[in-house]
Amino acid sequence: MLLLLALLIWLDADRLPPQVTVGVGPASVMRIMSLFVAALSVAHGVAAWKCHLRQTEQEAATSEITPISDLAGLAWILSGLALLGTSVYFGGGFVLGSTALFVTTARAFGQPIGFRSFGIGLTLTSFVFVFFARVLSLSLPAGPLERLLMA
After folding, report:
1. Crossing angle of helices 94-108/115-130, nearest 10°?
2. Largest CB tally within 10 Å, which of 57, 69, 93, 142?
3. How many CA atoms lie within 13 Å of 128's alpha carbon, on the beta-carbon side?
4. Does the model's pTM come out above 0.70?
């Protein structure tokens, strides 16, 4: 699937208009990302093959393999996505919603909800917002924290 995704990204890059100036254009970046995804697919295939070889050796000892699922973790992540959507919809902004998503995702992976997770999430999402707004000149949903950051 990753190799197919890499191919689709490469083909999508061919549909972009050619660059008018000398340098790196959007199609070049997409091709680079396509190569990274292709390399990731090869690495994932090698790791899966090694895992498959180990499992075939262990199947002789155990005949029942149970699937791993963590419904509580999934619920935390889905609730974080809902909080992000709610924050953007009601004017809370990108930073507040993404911080909530970071905290709930950290909780899904076993970290307690606390000041540490909130602080790390707030710092990372603030950097992401400033990067997108200032460096890339893209507009993300702005709330009170974003207006404070951009002042």
Report:
1. 140
2. 93
3. 17
4. no
What are the structure tokens assigned to 50, written together?
A: 């090694």
| Dihedral angle sign, alpha carbons of residues 51, 56, 58, 62 | positive
Sequence letter at residue 46: V
Binning the chain into helix, strand and coil, the percentages to the nearest 5 are: 70, 0, 30
User: Residue 56 and residue 78: Cα distance in Å, rounded?
Assistant: 35
> What does the pLDDT read at residue 95?
92
Pairwise CA distance, residues 112 & 108, whole Å: 9
Residue 120 burial by CB count (10 A; 0-12/13-18/19+): exposed, middle or buried?
A: middle
**pLDDT reported for residue 59:** 62
